[in-house]
Amino acid sequence: MKTLFTLFLLALLATTAPAWAQHRSAKSRAAKLAATRAAQEKAERARRAEAAAKLAAAMPVSSGPDADELLRIEESWAQATIRNDAETITHLLADEYVSVNSLGLVTGKSDVLAAIANDEAKCDINKPFEYIVRVYGNAGLVVHNTSFRGRMNGNITSGEYRTTHMFIKRNGKWLVVANQTTFVVPERMTLVSKNAPKGDSHERKRKRNKDDVAGQ
């Protein structure tokens, strides 16, 4: 009887071992893939940090009141997008303002203001960082990254973007005349709190027949 039980146990182990081994192998492969992805992301972050440092060294931030004013405008613009403050944005953008967003769409000042008025553009996170500021007389250039999360025409968009803003000083006032945005990293919400609000869950239905707003 003991011999029969032993044979039965061996047979049971023989039938279950392959499934157990496959499960262990699958977990091992998943762990290796996760480790590989983590290593690649770490290497990419290090590469980008090194590139940003080299670029910043080659193009140091301009100093002086004009450079300070450009940085103030950048911060004011970012905060205005969070508040959907069309009045502030109106005064920051030149009438001939033109933007190429991360999808390659070209929009103007009227498109930006219309998107705000029609409740088609919202964001709850817009945090610029890694600035490069240059002033050339009555012209200015600002390049920076931004962590962004919001909705464009009802579609959720988030990640890290790099923007280039061109300024012109007209009648003693700096105005944004052009913007170009490039999508850098998805879902890497640099400098973003995990407890940030996720937006209005009661978003009303609206038509989605307009291009994405400029700037992101």
UniProtKB/TrEMBL annotation:
The keyword Ribonucleoprotein does not apply. Residues 197-216 have a biased composition (Basic and acidic residues). Residues 194-216 are annotated as: Disordered. It holds the Pfam family DUF4440. It comes from the Bacteria. Keywords: Signal. The keyword Signal applies. Residues 70-175 form the DUF4440 domain. Residues 1-21 form the signal peptide. InterPro entries: DUF4440, NTF2-like_dom_sf. This is Nuclear transport factor 2 family protein. It comes from Hymenobacter ruricola.
